[in-house]
Amino acid sequence: GEGPTPCSLSLLRDEALAIAALEELPAELFPPLFSSALAGMHSQAVKAMVQAWPFPCLPLGALMKEHKPHLEIFQAAIDGLDVLLAQEVRPRRWKLQVLDLRRNAQQDFCTVWSGTRAGVAWLKQTSAPMEVLIDLCLKEGTPDASLSYLLKKVKQRRGSLRLCCQKLRVFSMPMQKIRKILKLVQLDSVQDLEVNCTWKLATLGRFAPHLGQMVNLRRLLLSHIHMTPHAAPGMEERCVSQLTSRFPSLQHLQELYLDSISFLEGRLDQVLRCLKNPLETLSITNCLISEADLMHLSQCPSVSQLKDLSLSGVNLTSISSKPLWVLIEKASATLQDLDLDECGIMDSQFSALLPALSHCSQLTTFSFCGNPISMAVLESLLRHTVGLSKLSHVLYPAPLESYEDVHGTVHLGRLAHLHARLKQVLQELGLPSMVWFSGNPCPHCGDRTFYSPEPILCPCYMAA
User: Fold this and answer.
1) What is the pLDDT confidence band of residue 110, given thresholds at 50, 70 and 90?
2) Which of 70, 241, 336, 398 could cross-link to 440 by cystine, CB 3.0-4.6 Å?
3) Dist CA 251 CA 279 (whole Å)
4) Which UniProt keywords apply (predicted)?
């Protein structure tokens, strides 16, 4: 093999010099110098600078995003941390307490460098454990080489290196692998959890103990959980209980999203009963629920301060409008965003909701596309919402009168005429600034066609 080139030798010499000079280097020169070391792939310099870092926080993830560095550079930074933690006596200048690996961590360097950033409690005592902040996405192929290296170090330095994760996404991945990784995470640091798997209910039951430890969780999304076909009697009940029994420990939960979940019907009160505090967001979408479920929902203490409510894709055709009316009325002082898309709500049901809607003084956005509503009821909605000063966006379905046939083909001329009529009513009521969009799936491809004030047509029609 050839020896090192003169160029690389001078670089190594410079790195050695740079490392020696770090003790004397003014703190404000660290960030630009660190960026240069990343850009130039100088792993020894990176390792040394992590050890001498003169600020409480090092936003490595955000800095690395700019330079797309190699595994070697990442490992060098983690090794620098490791060298620090291995020392019996901490260096005089050691300030570093948080290594932030989140790629989208805020880049407001003045506050980051001074360590006054919100969301991270600096621990002053010298023996405080070092924190690594990370957003985790568990899916096929996780962990990659970088994460594996980090997890190995966290395991070795248990107690002195804490892995904190504010955002956790779980996609399809074997449960034993998930559990193995989560064992190394401080679960009380998780604030935002998305479980977006096609899991069977039993699998969710096995995940539930981890959920119970996420006591600072603010946002929870569960999607595509389906029941095990031909499950033993009582098995389903047991799994649902395993999940809901963990909800009381989620004292800080503000946003709950339940999408495409097959076990909700007849059990919504069991889920909601276990919530101990008011929610800001409740989204139950593409689920089957019964009238009794909706009744329980409307009486649940947790929904009295909702800002966002979505029941999109929940079929309400055969359900009395009373529970929904009660629910909207109950949240009327706080509700800002209401989504009733594709609920199969008919004229009579919709008309019954109008008095409750007229009380929603904070409402800014209301969407109810994909419901069979007539022109007369749309006009009535306009007149009921005239007093809602904050309502700026309404997405409504093409009125029934604009259909040519039972197959749902929209007559564009008719729709344009009805649309003009609604605009005229808005003018008359003194609401010209309110934006009304009509959204209808294109019969050819299913894409939505929007009208405001002119039709924004699906490309399908353009080609025709």
Assistant:
1) very low
2) 398
3) 11
4) Leucine-rich repeat, Repeat
